[in-house]
Each structure stands twice: as C-alpha cells, then as structure tokens.
C-alpha cells in the first residue's frame, strides 16, 4: 500500500489524460505514450541511482558523473573590492567583461562581444589563443587600464579536468570547435602564455570555471544561502557546495578548506546504462538522430538542444500511425531537427492560457492546418515531454538537497529553457517539495553566471592568494 506522501507525489506527477471524444483513438495514443509517464516508484529509483553515481564519482570510482573538483573553496562574502576581468568562451562569439566591485556589489560593468571565425575554431589552437589574447588586450587598452594589474576569471565552457583553481585540461572540444592540438592541454596556460607574449597589459589569469559554477557564484551575490548552481538551457548541468573532507580528489596542498564547489557534469548521467530503465523508443530515436550517439544521456531527456527533436519524433510516429494530421503526413515534420524546443514553450503557453494561437502558428511553419483533435494531441505531447523533463531535473535536485543536509538552500538557475518555458519553474517547486518535504529551498534566476561569475571567482582567487602569501 502506498503511503500518503508517496500517493501525493504519484498523483502530482501524473499529467491529466488526453481529452478526445474518440475513445479508441485516445486509448491508442495513451498506450503509445504510456512509456513516458513516470511513477512515484520510478522517481525514487532514479533518486537512488543518482545518489549512487554521485557517491561513486566523489570517491573516484567509475561513474557516469564526473563530480569534478573546481577548487573554489568559498563564495563571495561582500568584501570583494576592485577591478576584475572575465573572459567568457563557450561558442562562436565570446565576451570580455570588466567588473568593478565595491563591498561585493557590481557598481560598473563594461562588456564587449567578439566573433571567432571558423578557421580559428578548427586547426591549430595557437592562432585561437593568440586571438583571445589580442581581444583581451584591445579591450583593456580601450578602457585605459593597460598599466593596471587586472585579475581575470576564465569561463571555459568545454569538458575539462581541473588540477587546481587555475588549471583546466581540455578533455574534448564540443559545439563548433575542433583544435586537436589543444586536447589534453591546459587551456589556462595557453591563454596565459598568449597574453604574456603580447606583453602590453598586466592581466593575470587567476581562475578557470564553467557557466554552471559561475551561476552558483552569481546567485551567491543575490542570496547568501545559494549552494546549488543549475543550467537549464541548450545543455544542462549542476554544481553544489560539498564538504571538503568528503572530496578525495584534491591535488594541491590543502589549506583548511571547509567546503568546495563540485561540478557534477550531469549531462552524461546514465551514459553507462544506469538510466536505461526509463529509456523509451522515442529516446532511442532521438539519440540516434544526435551528433554524439550514446552520450549526454540525461541531457537528451531534459535540455533545450534535444527536447524539440524528442517531440518531433513522437509527432512523426503518431502521424505515420494515422493518429495525428490524418489529412496528410507533413514531409517537413519528418526532417530531423526541424522542431525547435522554443516551439514547445510557445505551445505550453497555449495550454496554460487554454488557447491554441501559438500552436497553430507553430504548425503553420510545417504547412499543417490542424483540426481541433490535432491541436489537443500536439499540446498533450508537449506537456508530457516538458513534464517528464521537469520531474527528472527535480528528482536530481531533491537528491542533492538531501545529500547536503543544509538548513536552507537557494538554487541559482540560468538558461533559456528555464527562462522561456512557462511551467518549468512551477513544476520544479512542486516536485522538489514533494520529493523532499523536510528541506527548505528556493529557486532564483541568476543571469550571466558565465560573465559576472567569472569576475567574481577572480576576486575570490585574489583574496585566497593574498591570504596565503
């Protein structure tokens, strides 16, 4: 027999059945999509698996979670003062930022964007880092600060292994980058060397981080209870504050650190097969259609890069089976990558509003003129996919909260999916509460962790450096 709290969880995570007058058609669709519905028991099983993978990762045992030590041992405390630079590299465009902090508060922020041409993103890494250094120099000189010592935080949003706060060994390039001679090299050292060769500024690269860590740091300037950073955008990842004595991987000398930020790298959760029990036929096709098959398993369930394609796969299947768009199977819907995650957010807004304006607009892009049943089915599929994604994220966040055992935790979140989806935040608040009722938590939107967060970590690194001198 299900205990009351589990019954409440079970009932909350069940999306209302599809409302169609044709019972036979409705039942066929429900049967086909039943594999996407998760029970309370399955949610608890995912929690157990995530907890197990976290423990293995933190103890340096084989795990689908990297549990990388960032070597950031403290959060901003309001004493940060001075000028700090940030270099935010993660796509075809990158940014250089100058932040002035007074009592930990940003009082000045100058930002400049730069484009990286295709020839710099591939081939040898030397020209790429020369260009990054040139842009940093030009920015600093344009600010009239070439003679001022400027600490820099480097946001390097690619998979890396850290040996210290200022070491980032590139594991693999992603997105549109492929400079093979940088793999297994320290990206921070390459940047330092390129800046030193120019010799026209006094920029010191003090720390490296990714956008998830930056989000936690940026959140901490808004709320001192921030202890989890979460990205829900094109990709997804999380980090959290761990007790330092639990962390086995620690290469430099320890200096009495009490806690440290751990980068979970949860996009790969399940790459080793531990989540296969929730994998549907639609997930398998979504994976087969992706560039990196059999990797980023968890990300493919929840992130903006893959949710749209997941929904397209389902709509195409329903259409081929004669259960949707019965007038014609739209050819455009059979094109891989044609259905964007942004469309899901728009359609979900219709479900919230009880309308179909956005749904019709989206389907018009595929030259589809839907009937009333089509509209209901498309909205239902988007709701099921979105709801499952929000539940999976919530399961892992709730597990983190239980693991941390803190009085109160603020979760700093950033990313386009979280910002634009009309129901994600509400679902997360509801599900996390039901999954771990004893924990007090709050979700806040912390924007631009990859920029401001990098400058903040430079300030923290400078403070630590001075303390140890």
Low-confidence stretches: none
Radius of gyration: 23 Å
Largest sheet: 6 strands, mixed
Number of strands: 13
Q: How is the largest sheet built, in terms of strand order?
A: 1-11-10-9-12-13
Q: How much beta, percentage-wise?
A: 15-25%
**Helix and strand element order:** HHHEEEEHHEEEHEHEEEHHHHHHEHHEH
Shape: globular
What is the terminal-to-terminal distance? 62 Å
How many helix segments?
Answer: 16
Residue-averaged pLDDT, rounded? 94
Level of helix content? 40-55%
Q: Structural class, judged by helices and strands?
A: alpha/beta
What can you see in these coordinates?
By secondary structure, the chain is α/β, with parallel strands linked by helices. It has helices at residues 4-12, 23-33, 40-58, 118-121, 125-142, 187-198, 211-222, 281-288, 297-302, 304-320, 341-353, 357-364, 372-404, 416-420, 424-435, 452-468, and strands at 68-69, 82-89, 93-102, 105-115, 149-156, 160-164, 167-170, 202-209, 226-232, 236-243, 259-263, 408-414, 440-445. The strands form 3 sheets. Strands 1-11-10-9-12-13 form a 6-stranded mixed β-sheet, sandwiched between helices. Strands 4-3-2-5-8 form a 5-stranded mixed β-sheet. A two-stranded antiparallel sheet has the order 6-7. Helix 5 crosses helix 6 and helix 7 packs across helix 16. The longest helix has 33 residues, at 372-404. The protein is globular, with a radius of gyration of 23 Å. Keywords: ATP-binding, Glycolysis, Kinase, Nucleotide-binding, Transferase.
């Amino acid at each position: 027999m299900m205990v009351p709290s589990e019954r409440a969880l079970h009932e909350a995570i069940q999306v209302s059945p599809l409302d169609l007058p044709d019972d036979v058609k409705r039942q066929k669709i429900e049967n086909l999509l039943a594999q996407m519905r998760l029970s309370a028991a399955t949610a608890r099983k995912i929690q157990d698996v995530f907890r197990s993978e976290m423990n293995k990762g933190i103890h340096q045992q084989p795990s689908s979670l990297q549990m990388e030590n960032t070597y950031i041992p403290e959060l901003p405390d309001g004493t940060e003062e001075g000028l700090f630079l940030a270099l935010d590299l993660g796509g075809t465009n990158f940014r250089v930022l100058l932040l002035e902090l007074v009592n930990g508060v940003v009082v000045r922020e100058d930002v400049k964007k730069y484009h990286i041409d295709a020839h710099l993103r591939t081939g040898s890494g030397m020209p790429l880092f020369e260009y990054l250094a040139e842009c940093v120099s030009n920015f600093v000189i344009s600010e009239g600060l070439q003679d001022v010592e400027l600490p820099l935080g480097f946001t390097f949003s690619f998979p890396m292994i850290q040996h210290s706060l200022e070491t980032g060994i590139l594991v693999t390039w992603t997105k549109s980058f492929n400079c093979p001679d940088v793999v297994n090299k320290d990206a921070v050292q390459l940047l330092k060397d390129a800046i030193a060769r120019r010799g026209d500024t006094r920029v010191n690269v003090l720390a490296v981080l990714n956008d998830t860590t930056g989000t936690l740091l940026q959140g901490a300037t808004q709320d001192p209870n921030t202890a989890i950073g979460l990205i829900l955008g094109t990709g997804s990842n999380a980090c959290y504050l761990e007790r330092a004595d639990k962390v086995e991987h620690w290469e430099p000398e320890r200096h009495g650190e009490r806690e440290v930020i751990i980068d979970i790298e949860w996009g790969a959760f399940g790459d080793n097969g531990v989540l296969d029990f929730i994998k549907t036929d639609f997930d398998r096709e979504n994976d087969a259609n992706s560039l990196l098959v059999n990797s980023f398993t968890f990300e493919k369930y929840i992130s903006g890069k893959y949710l749209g394609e997941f929904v397209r796969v389902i709509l195409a299947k329903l259409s081929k089976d004669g259960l949707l768009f019965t007038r014609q199977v739209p050819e455009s819907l059979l094109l891989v990558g044609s259905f964007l995650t942004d469309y899901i957010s728009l359609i979900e807004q219709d479900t919230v509003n009880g309308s179909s304006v956005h749904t019709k607009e989206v389907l018009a892009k595929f030259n589809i003129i839907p009937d009333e049943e089509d509209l209901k089915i498309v909205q239902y599929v988007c709701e099921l996919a979105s709801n499952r994604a929000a539940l999976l994220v919530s399961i892992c966040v709730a597990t983190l909260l239980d693991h941390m055992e803190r009085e109160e935790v603020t979760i700093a979140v950033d990313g386009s999916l979280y910002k634009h989806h009309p129901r994600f935040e509400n679902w997360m608040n509801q599900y996390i509460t039901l999954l771990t009722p004893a924990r007090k938590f709050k979700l806040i939107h912390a924007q631009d962790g990859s920029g401001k967060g990098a400058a903040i970590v430079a300030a923290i690194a400078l403070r630590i450096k001075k303390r140890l001198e």
